[in-house]
Amino acid sequence: MATAAVEEQELDPSLPACVNLISAILAMEPSDLVISHARACGGGSITESVQKFIWDHCLSTPGDFYAPYLKIFLKKLISEVEFDHGYVLDYLYELYAQYMTSFKDDSFGKRDTRVCKRISYIFPDGCSELQSKQHSRALVFTLQCSLNMLEGDTGCSIWPSSLFLSELILSHPKLFSNKSCFEIGSGVGLVGLCLAHVKASKVILSDGDLSTLANMKFNLELNHLNIETDMPQGSENPIMVKCMHLPWESTSESQLQDIVPDVVLGADVIYDPVCLPHLVRVLAILLNRTKSDSCKPENGDACDESVGRCKVVYNGRADGKSKEAPVAYIAYVIRNIETFDYFLSLAKQANLDIMDLSDSLKPLNLLRYMQSYNQTHVKLLSITCSNRVMGA
Ligand SMILES: C[S@@+](CC[C@H](N)C(=O)[O-])C[C@H]1O[C@@H](n2cnc3c(N)ncnc32)[C@H](O)[C@@H]1O
Ligand SMILES: *[C@@H]1O[C@H](CO)[C@@H](O)[C@H](O)[C@H]1NC(C)=O
Ligand SMILES: *[C@@H]1O[C@H](CO)[C@@H](O)[C@H](O)[C@H]1NC(C)=O
Ligand SMILES: *[C@@H]1O[C@H](CO)[C@@H](O)[C@H](O)[C@H]1NC(C)=O
Predict the structure, then answer these.
(1) Nearest CA residue ID for atom 12, ligand 4
(2) Does the reported pTM lie above 0.90?
(3) Which string of DSSP letters, residue by residue, matches 140-182?
(4) Is the pLDDT score of 122 beyond 50?
(5) Cα–Cα dist 149/305, whole Å
(6) How many CA atoms lie within 13 A of 112 on its CB side?
(7) Per residue in 289-305, pLDDT tens?
(8) Residue 285's CB: how many other CB atoms inside 10 A?
(9) Mean pLDDT, range 33-56, rounded to an integer
């Protein structure tokens, strides 16, 4: 048996390369990407201290992981070290051998298996809120997802646009703090976790698929958020997240009008042309604060209909202050340009104003370790209700 030649130094887990390595493993990044982090951590090769580091931080509690993932990762790790003529730590061999015998089939990803991915946000140095925890994985969310991207009408996996919106929310918290936020097609619920983190005054998530909705609720509980029941909102529990079943096709106008959000969010919801007219209808109602009955003189708010249909302030505010017009932030990856153009034309017909914010409102890069996600591939739109007067 070979012996470790040199006693190597322990790696400092707060080194950026080490933070990236742990974060990538916890997020179940593809093995070859994790291997490149491991190499970076060891200055080019997967040294014994890198292996020990991986063991100490991830593998010593393998129960937290999806075993077939670790099996594939270990296999790759061991073969890379052997390829470099390096020394593989005994306990890595042992763990791999254990997996070899207990998981004979390599059906990883083929069934509708649920796994838990941990998404770590790594804040840059000097980020005021997190100064004491530089380069640490200061914020981590655990999300149960399916390995089958189509499960739950695609809502049980994490799509790049929700990673993008999550970075946007954490980078520009003021756009969402103390605002009533509503998300359509929320999927696994990541955006809602971030909204609660930056203290949105209200968070309502929604989806049209019931199994996705159940998985979303599971994730909120997993991350210790309270799910709103029909009970009145208690002030001792400020972070309440509500989940709604909201299929765009069948949700009535009055149900949508009851929501009254300040901010609407949507990640990767523009892809199925059949759904788009319904999606645009939902957005148009959510963003239209003009209510046919809001302009009665007795309701006390300034209400100047001459400013146009969509600019009229919303009624019923005790402080008499007018709310800003609601805005939707829609993040998307263009997969089919015709589908996207169809969305734009429907939005125009519905009197929605669309702005491309991709170049003006950029999030910080908080998920740098996640090489399977590239922030620059996601675009961002803001959508507001047009304030042009009808017929003008
Ligand atoms: C591609 S996934 C995106 C999920 C999540 N926002 C993300 O980015 O990770 C699309 C989501 O929209 C939901 N969805 C699709 N069509 C819908 C419809 N007609 N009504 C309501 N939700 C719908 C799906 O259930 C799914 O959760
Ligand atoms: C939150 O918004 C309410 C109403 O808009 C306002 O009265 C309150 O001061 C705000 N709180 C914070 C912390 O900004
Ligand atoms: C907004 O709602 C009002 C009242 O229901 C309606 O008259 C108006 O056409 C709506 N505007 C748009 C852009 O849909
Ligand atoms: C992201 O994609 C852009 C454009 O495709 C590319 O230039 C860039 O190198 C990618 N970034 C990363 C970190 O992979």
Answers:
(1) 374
(2) no
(3) EEEEEEESSTTTTTTTTS--HHHHHHHHHHHH-GGGTTTSEEE
(4) yes
(5) 47
(6) 10
(7) 875 544 444 444 444 44
(8) 18
(9) 94
Contact status, residue 225 vs residue 200, Cβ threshold 8 Å:
no
308: left (phi over 0), alpha (psi -120 to 50) or beta: left
Residue 231 neighbours by CB distance under 10 Å: 8
Q: Where are the alpha helices (DSSP H) in 84-149?
A: 90-102
Q: What are phi and psi of 132, to 5 degrees?
A: -75, -15
Nearest CA to ligand 4 atom 1: 374
What local confidence, expressed as pLDDT, does residue 1 receive? 41
Class of domain 160-385: alpha beta
Mode of pairing for the β-strands spanning 180-184 and 139-146: unpaired
List the domain boundaries for the chain. Answer: 2-107, 160-385
Q: What is the mean pLDDT of residues 217-227?
A: 88
* CB of residue 30 inside a 6 A radius of ligand 1: no
Distances (CA, A) of 380 to 34, 154, 377: 28, 20, 10
Q: What is the mean pLDDT of residues 30-45?
A: 94
Closest ligand 3 atom to 284 CA:
14
Among the listed residues 34, 106, 35, the one whose alpha carbon sits nearest the alpha carbon of residue 68: 106
